[in-house]
Design a protein that fits this description.
This protein is α+β, with helices and mostly antiparallel strands. It has 20 helices and 14 strands.
C-alpha cells in the first residue's frame, strides 16, 4: 500500500507540472448522480439502515409521509428512553433522535414480520416491531397515538393487493436498466447449449403463455432428441409439472446440470417412459460419460415419506446407468425453526458469553449451511472430475434445488463470480425458475405462515462462505450479498415480488417497477471487490463444520454492541476511490491538452 500511495503522489506531482491548478482541483471531478438512499444492514454498505443521525429526513421519489409524531424509542443497551420524531410513510418507519449521538432507525414497512401492542399506563403504550432481518425495536406512545399509528402501519405494511407494495410507487429512475440483465438466448448461447451446429440441446417454447407449467419460464432448454409431445406427457409424472430442464452445460466435457421436481412414483411404483427417455437423452448428450447422477437434495426418510403420498424418487430399475443419492438437506420448516433459534441467540443485548459457541451449535444453522455446501461441492466435483451429468431435484424443485444448482454453477463457472454473471444467475435459477419469493418471505402477510422460510437468504449465506474461502475469485464484494438480502424484504424493487414469471407478467412488474440490478449496475463501484483477480478455474472449497462460520456482518448487524469493522478492506477502498479520482483528473487534463501522452490507465496489482 505504501508503494501505491507513493505512486499516487508521483501521479499528482506529474499532473501539477502540467496544470497550475492541479493542487486545487485534482480530486474534484464531476459529481456522481444523486444516489438513492437505500437501507442495508451492514455499516460498510453504500447506504445503511442504521446510519448516523443526520437530523434530516429525505423522502424517496414516490414516497409520501402519512403521519409524523413525537415518540420515545427504548434504548436496548440501557433500557432508557430516547426522544425523537417518528415518520410513517408509504415505504418505511423513520425515527430520528432529537439530540445526542444516536443512530437513525429506518425500517421498510414491508419487512415487518410482526407488530405487537404492549404496555399500559400513561405514556407507556408501546409498539414492539419485529423485522424479518433480525431488527427488533420498541416505540413508546400515548394511547391514542399508538392506536392510530398501529392501524396505519397494518394497512400499509400488509396490503391485500400486491400492487400496493411500494415498488409500484417508486418513481426513481436509473441510468442502467436491470430488467435487461438476463437474456435467455444470450445466456444459453454463452454456455454452448444453443447456437451450435449438431447441438445435443434445443430451445423449447412448450410453456408458451405459461399454459403448461405456471411456475416455469416461457423458454427452457431440453435434450434435442426429445419432442415437445413427449415433454407434455412427462409433465404428468413430475410434481407440479416441473419437468427436467437444462441449467448449465460444461464448456468442454459436455456434462450438464439439469433441474426438475420429484417424480410421482407412489407406492404403486408408477413410471413414465417419456421421463425415462429424457434422462437417457441427457446421458447420451455427454459422450464422455456413461452415467447420469441423480441428486435428490432431501433426506432419504423424507423422500420415502413422499412416496407414500404419491410422489417419491427415481427407481433405479427404470433408469439405466443412473446413480441416485440423497443430500440430506432439511426442508423449509426445519430451516425456519433453525433461523428462529438463531434470532433468539443473536437478538438479545446480553447473553451468556461462556455458552455462545454451544448455543450457536444448538441452532443448527451452521449445520444446515454445511450440508448445502457439501452437496453443491459434490455436484461440482461430479461435473468437473467425473465428467458426468447431474439431475438435481428436491420436492417441488424451487427451494433446495435452486440452492444446489446455483451454488454448483458458481463453483464451476467463473462468469457467475462476476457482478453481472451473479445477477444473471439469480435471475435464471431463482426468479425465472420460480422460487416462491412471495410465499417464502410472506410479502403482505400479517401472520407468519407455515410456508415462511429464509431459503434465499440461506443461499446468500452459503455464497458468503465460499467468498470467505476464495476472496479474490469474486468481482463483487460481500456488500452486494448484504444489499440483496436487505431488499428481498423491503419491496423497494420489483425483482423479488411474486412467486413466478407468470404472476410478474400478469402484474406488469417489468414496466411498473424498478429492478434491483438497475441500482446495482448504476452504482457498481460500490459493490465491486477491489482485490478481485480473475480466476478461470473451478473452486472446490473444503466443507466441514470446522470451516463454516457465522455470517456475523449480516445476522448480527443490529446488535447494539456489534459493529462490523474491517480496517484492511476500508483502507483498500480508500485507495481505490483515490485511484479513481486521480484517473478522472488525468482524463480531464488530457481532454484539455491534446499534446499530453495517450491515456494510461492507473491500476494496482494485489499479490495473490
Amino acid at each position: 500500500y505504501n508503494e501505491y500511495k507513493s505512486y499516487l503522489r508521483a501521479s499528482m506531482a506529474s499532473l501539477s507540472t502540467n496544470n497550475e491548478d492541479a493542487d486545487t482541483n485534482v480530486f474534484e471531478g464531476n459529481k456522481e448522480p444523486e444516489r438513492l438512499e437505500i437501507t442495508s444492514p451492514v455499516e460498510s454498505t453504500p447506504a445503511q439502515i442504521l446510519a448516523p443521525s443526520s437530523g434530516n429526513f429525505i423522502a424517496f421519489s414516490g414516497e409520501e409521509v402519512k403521519q409524523t409524531i413525537e415518540v420515545e424509542c427504548i434504548d436496548p443497551c440501557s433500557d432508557g428512553h430516547i426522544r425523537g420524531k417518528l415518520r410513517l410513510t408509504n415505504y418505511r418507519l423513520f425515527f430520528s433522535a432529537a439530540e445526542g449521538d444516536i443512530h437513525d432507525i429506518d425500517i421498510p414497512i414491508h419487512s415487518i414480520l410482526k407488530i405487537d401492542k404492549t404496555g399500559r399506563g400513561e405514556n407507556s403504550y408501546m409498539l414492539d416491531i419485529k423485522c424479518k432481518y433480525f431488527l427488533c425495536v420498541t416505540f413508546v406512545f400515548n394511547r391514542q397515538e399508538r392506536k392510530d399509528l398501529y392501524k396505519q402501519i397494518i394497512s400499509l405494511a400488509f396490503p391485500s393487493d400486491p400492487t400496493k407494495f411500494f415498488a409500484f410507487e417508486n418513481k426513481k429512475r436509473f441510468k442502467e436498466n436491470g430488467w435487461e440483465v438476463y437474456n435467455f438466448k444470450k445466456e444459453y448461447t454463452r454456455m454452448g447449449a444453443l447456437g451450435q451446429e449438431n447441438s445435443k440441446w434445443r430451445h423449447s417454447d412448450i410453456n408458451k403463455n405459461y399454459e403448461l407449467i405456471d411456475s416455469y419460464p416461457l423458454d427452457i432448454v431440453v435434450p434435442a432428441s426429445i419432442t415437445d409431445e413427449a415433454l407434455r406427457k412427462a409433465t404428468y409424472f413430475r410434481s407440479r409439472g416441473r419437468i427436467i430442464a437444462l441449467s448449465w452445460l460444461h464448456p468442454s466435457n459436455n456434462a450438464s446440470i439439469t433441474r426438475c421436481s420429484q417424480p410421482s412414483v407412489g407406492l404403486n411404483k408408477r413410471r413414465s417412459q417419456e421421463d425415462e427417455d429424457v434422462i437417457a437423452a441427457i446421458r447420451k448428450a455427454n459422450e464422455k460419460s456413461t452415467h447420469v447422477y441423480i441428486c435428490d437434495c432431501r433426506p432419504s426418510v423424507n423422500a420415502h415419506a413422499n412416496q407414500a403420498k404419491g410422489k417419491g424418487y427415481e427407481l433405479a430399475a427404470f433408469y439405466d446407468n443412473t446413480e441416485l443419492s440423497f443430500g440430506n438437506i432439511e426442508n423449509i420448516h426445519e430451516v425456519r425453526a433453525s433461523n428462529e433459534r438463531l434470532r433468539d441467540l443473536v437478538t438479545p443485548v446480553r447473553v451468556d458469553e461462556t455458552k455462545w459457541l454451544s448455543n450457536l451449535e444448538s441452532t443448527k444453522w451452521l449445520y444446515h449451511i454445511q450440508l448445502i455446501l457439501k452437496e453443491a461441492v459434490r455436484v461440482a466435483s461430479i461435473i468437473e472430475n467425473k465428467r458426468s451429468s447431474v439431475v438435481v431435484h428436491c420436492s417441488d424443485g424451487w427451494d433446495r434445488t435452486a440452492q444446489i444448482t446455483s451454488l454448483a454453477m458458481i463453483l464451476l463457472d467463473p462468469y457467475y463470480r462476476t457482478l453481472v454473471g451473479f445477477e444473471v444467475l439469480i435471475e435464471k435459477e431463482w426468479i425465472s425458475f420460480g422460487h416462491q419469493f412471495h410465499t417464502r418471505i410472506c410479502h403482505g402477510s400479517q401472520e407468519q405462515t407455515n410456508n415462511y422460510s429464509q431459503i434465499f437468504v440461506q443461499w446468500l449465506d452459503c455464497v458468503w462462505q465460499i467468498m470467505r474461502h476464495s476472496p479474490y475469485a469474486f468481482e463483487f464484494s460481500t456488500t452486494l450479498l448484504s444489499f440483496i438480502a436487505q431488499h428481498v424484504y423491503s419491496c423497494l424493487f420489483g425483482t423479488f415480488l411474486f412467486d413466478n414469471e407468470s404472476q410478474r407478467h400478469e402484474h406488469e412488474v417489468r414496466s411498473k417497477t424498478q429492478s434491483i440490478w438497475s441500482y446495482v449496475n448504476s452504482y457498481k463501484t460500490e459493490f465491486l471487490n477491489p482485490l478481485y483477480l480473475e480466476y478461470p478455474g473451478v473452486i472446490l472449497p473444503p466443507v466441514s463444520m470446522r470451516t463454516v462460520r457465522l455470517w456475523s456482518q449480516y445476522w448480527m448487524a443490529y446488535h447494539p454492541f456489534y459493529r462490523f469493522h474491517d480496517p484492511l478492506f476500508e483502507r483498500v477502498m480508500e485507495l481505490v476511490h483515490l485511484r479513481d479520482k486521480v484517473q478522472q483528473s488525468c482524463d480531464e487534463l488530457r481532454a484539455r491538452n491534446k499534446d499530453l501522452a495517450p491515456t494510461v490507465k492507473i491500476s494496482v496489482n494485489v499479490p495473490g
